[in-house]
Amino acid sequence: MRRLRDLGDLKGKRVLVRVDFNVPLDVEGNVTDDTRIRGTLPTLRELRAQGARLILVSHLGRPKDHDPKFSMAPVARRLSELLDIPVELAPAVIGDEVTKMAQELEDGEILMLENVRFEAGETNNDDTLSASLAALADAYVNDAFGASHRAHSSTVGAARLLPHAAGLLLEREVKTLTEVTESPKRPMVAILGGSKVSDKINVIARFLNLADELLIGGAMGFPFLAAQGHSVGNSLCADEDVELAKSLLRAAQQAKGILRLPVDLVVADRFSAEATPVAVDGVEVPEGMMGLDIGPKTAAGYARSIAAAGTIFWNGPMGAFEMEPFAAGTRAVAEAMASAVGTTVVGGGDSGAAVQQFGLAERIDHVSTGGGAALELIEGQTLPGIDVLS
Asked: Is 36 in the active site?
């Protein structure tokens, strides 16, 4: 990838920076988790130090038309607080007024465009929108790893029309995740959780031959248990996932790595924070119950594997960690990651949210800002927003 230094002297130049500020907001419109905003601060500070004039573009949610609840205004306020400088919000993504605001920027100043998904052409990489975005600036920087698996106007179209480079966050994400797949310290342990096997079948298949141990948890574990003939009760378990699990179990017999499944569970009669957790010594889910977490024996075993590993990659919770009665398994994995001597990488998404929730993110070597993008990179797919920067 081209890097910031490849753009040359940026003093007085307008730089269109694609950031991933798709952050959660509360009902009052305040940013509740600014991890993604903080992640791109080194890039913004470096560009400002060079005298660049910054035009930031990001999406927020999936708005229909110009729904004001998806405005970038709260994000602009939070970024202004973090940088301790004014961050002006444009009234739109493109248009005469936006062009005038961009042209009037001084060195080091920042203009944030409105939600780029307010423009219908964003998600289909519309040539007209791409050209309008590119016309605002003299150079393009992508620091939005979490959006780089999408071939959109703001990630691909505009980049093709300007001198372009990767931001510091994007560069670090690619370097770290590439090292996980190409040069991991051994032994390597991968922990995968979440809800559906079908969502991560390619990642599971990749780690079967890449990792020394592959640890499965969360609702994803139940199709594997069902494929082995165990009762899963009312647990989340689609028929298609059971068939996929059977094929993966067959592949595991010939694979380099060891596939490990839960040996005990925590179940309840309903998916609710008010439900009473019941520990099951084994993996047979009683009739009328559903599995909502790995059990203490499984958690302890997974923690031992993590402690002995040279490289650990984790994506997906071990249970319904958002509900305290069923958070123990995910917390145990997060704590083991935080205490590990090996290199620890959390692949964004819910597992990234979990380490933030437990206050452990600062003790992880790398918490990715892109769940879907991280998994696609791990799978070996080409990410359009990165490929265009070569």
From this structure: yes
Q: Which domains does the chain have, with CATH numbers?
A: 4-166 (3.40.50.1260), 173-379 (3.40.50.1260)
Assess whether 196 carries a catalytic annotation: yes
Cβ-contact 186, 310 below 8 angstroms:
yes
Annotated catalytic residue within 78, 196, 260, 331 = 196
From the list 13, 36, 53, 78, the catalytic residue is: 36
List pLDDT tens digits, range 31-48.
999 999 999 999 999 999
Per-residue pLDDT of 366-386, as tens digits, reads 999 988 899 999 998 999 999
Q: Confirm whether 349 is a catalytic residue.
A: yes
pTM: 0.92
Find all residues with CB under 8 Å of 290, minimum gap 6, and list them: 233, 234, 235, 236, 267, 268, 269, 270, 271
Q: What is the Rg, in whole angstroms, of the alpha carbon atoms belonging to the chain? A: 22
The answer to whether 314 and 337 are in contact (CB under 8 A) is: yes
Q: Which of 121, 194, 349, 385 is catalytic?
A: 349
Check: CB of residue 274 under 8 Å from CB of residue 298.
no
